Structure formats: structure tokens, C-alpha cells
# Entry
Amino acid sequence: MSLALQLRIFSRAFPAAILVLFAVLMSAAAETPLKGRLIILTSFPDALFDPYRRAFQAKHPDLTIHILNKKTSAAISYIQDKSSTQVDLVWASAPDAFEMLKQSGHLRKREGAGSAPVKRVAGYPLDDPDGYYTGFAVSGYGVMWNTEYLARYNLKAPANWDDLAKPAYAGHLAITAPSRSGTTHLIVEIILQSKGWREGWNLLLRMSGNLATVTARSFGVRDGIRVGRFGTGPVIDFFGFSSMATGKPVGFAYPAETVLLPANVAIVEGAQNLPAAAAFIRFLKSAEGQRILFKPEISRLPVRPDVYRDAPAAIPNPFNGSIRTKGLIFDSNLSRQRYHLVNVLFDVLITHRLTAAKAAWASLHEAEAVLAGLPDPELRARIAEARDLLTQVPVSKEESRQASFTRQFSRKKPGFAVSQRQAALEAGWVASAKSRYAEARRISDEVRSALAARSLMSQTQ
# Structure
């Protein structure tokens, strides 16, 4: 009797035994020891990646895990430039960054991806529909503040993006340049997409007048607010939740004009340790891995609705409507397409013009405060002219959506020159910004002088 026939007879006689044997074999395969090196490139702080590294390492002691920590824009370049150190996984928040890597062919499609309907949060897919990256946490974006700092300066807690542009917050605000932070890039894009290109830049430029600093990393905004170096700033939600959970005197709020997006992980094309990379992703998305997100020092929102029964009281559930937004669906393709354009504009208009912008806005705000009680159409018109000069953006909405225009821009990397076209456009924008900011300050100073002279004259009469 053949072996095949014997197995068929055995399976008919003992079907339950076959199922048990199959389960045992599958379990043994799943627990096959992982070996070699697993190299993970991430933009996350060590407070997040260390608990995962320790937990995964404990399950696979023969595996060596290396963490490369880089800001999102640098991580994109690191992978696209094909560094000699081959990365297995990229792990970060920004979905537009993963879209860039997907479009450039640097991500590997996951086995079995695309076989089931893609789940969504607030209308946005939790996984890439094409299967190249997958969400492991939900991210919201909002405003964080130091409660003791605001009380000391008699300031109200900001509730939305527009509050950050109010003159009362002058000198109390911090932000990171989007060229240095994928998280801040998303916040800038959320503002641009929710308010429109022109009005979005108007708000960002008004916010620039209130900045105490532009930090090197998004962690700098969180850390500065925690210790009271400055009062408030835009951040990803887990910066606020983890700070509150660990006893820092801070608050956090979601503006209505925000979105919920997945933080993602993906296998890099050419990964050297595919079994370990796939196993790490499975661990991230397992119930055990998802509950690690509830640790106070992490305080992130899981992508699995079933684990929220174990969530701390302060952690909102993005799947039950407890986070209220206006329903904006983030366009990650648009953000990907104009990624470098937005970053260059922000640096030209805000990061590298900060001193001039703050001085011009301070003069304008002082003039406006005095003019508020005076019926003087001529001086009001001059201040309106100064405000217009400070809020001009040299790229139109139409250009920001044209791939033929946006593809001219790339990330600036030390030792590498950008294209001649980008260099020429930037030079023109820089010259224009310098001229406009200087002229706006001159006009505002003249209006203030005129108002001071008028006040002095009235006092001597």
C-alpha cells in the first residue's frame, strides 16, 4: 500500500488528529528561531522603539536588532541613495513618505497583501491598498501646551490652528521645519489641505511672527513645552498623551481641521532578512504588540479596535467617533507630489527669515493694536499693505498641483547641489522675501511713528 493511500485512510479515520498535527506543524514553523541581523530605519524616539526592540528580542534571542534613527526626510534619502548598509524595515509616521518610497520602487510588496478589504479610520485606509506598507498605529495631529507656562503669561489654551497665529502668542510658539520632520510636514500639509493653498500659507506666515524658535526635530517642540521653554506648538498626538501620562504639566487638543492617519511600517526592497522583517511586522500588529502602545511613555493609538477595551482612560478611541474632525480626507498623493516644494517654501519664507519675520510682525501688531480704536482709513490701508507683503507666497495653487512644476524640487543634502532651476527659483524667492519683509517693517514702523506723534500732539494741546 502506498504512503499516500495510507495517509488518506488515516485522515478519514482520524480527521481531528490530522487537524491537531497540522496545527502543531504550523506552530512549530511560526516559532522557527530567527537569526542574523534585522536592520530597522525609524524616525521614532527611543521611548517608542526600545520597548518593541526588547520585547521582540526576548522572543528571538538569536536575532541581532540594529536601529538606525533618522528624521523622515533623511530616512527617505538614505534608502533611495542605496546606502551600503542595507535596511530591512522602514518604520515611521508619515504616509506620504511611504508613498514616495513606494513610487520610487524602494518598498517590497508584502506576501498576501491585497487579499482582504482595506480597513479605514476616519475614511483613510489603514494599509496601503497596493500592499507595500501597513499601518501599526493611528496618528492624530493637534496643539500641545504647557499649563503652568500659559498661566504664568495669562494665556488661554489654544484650541485650533488659528489660535497659534493670534498676537497674544507672540514669542510663545515653537515649531519644527517640515524639511526636518515628517510629522511637521504632515501638519503643514493638513493646514494647506484643510484651508486651501493660499489661506493655509497665510496662517503659517502669521504663525511665524509668534515663533520663539524653529527646532531641529519635532521632539524639540515636545521637550521644550514639557520644561516650559516655550508655551505651545503643533505636535503629533502621542507627544501630548505620553507627556500627560508621565506627569508633565501639559495639555493637548485636536483641532476640528485635522485628520487621523496611520503610522506605518514597510519592508525595504532588497531586505536581507525577510523572515525577521515579516515577523517584526506581525508582532507590531499582534494583540500583544498593539498593547505595548498603551505604555505611558508611548501612549499611541492602536490600529486594532479590539484592544481598546484595555486602553487607559486618557487614550481616545479613533474608531468610535470620540475624536471629532470635519471629515477632511488627507490626499497623500498630493502631499507626496509637492513634498519637497512645501519644505523649500517653508524654509525660504519662515525658517531662514525668522528674525526678520518676527520683527516685522511685532511692529505690525503694535500698530494694529493702536489703530483698533482709531477711525483712520489711510493708516489702516498702509497696515493692510504691510500685512499683504508679509503673507505673500510666490507659488500659486495651480503650480503646487502641477507635477511638471513640483518635480523640479528635491531635498537639500550636504555636499550635493540642487538643480539649476530649483536654485534659481529659490534665489528669487529669497530676494523677494527679504525685500517684502523689510518693506513691511518699514511701513509698520512709519505708522507707529505717526501714531506716536499724534498721541504726543494731543497730550500737549
Q: What stands out?
A: DSSP finds 19 helices and twelve strands in the chain. The chain has a mean pLDDT of 90.
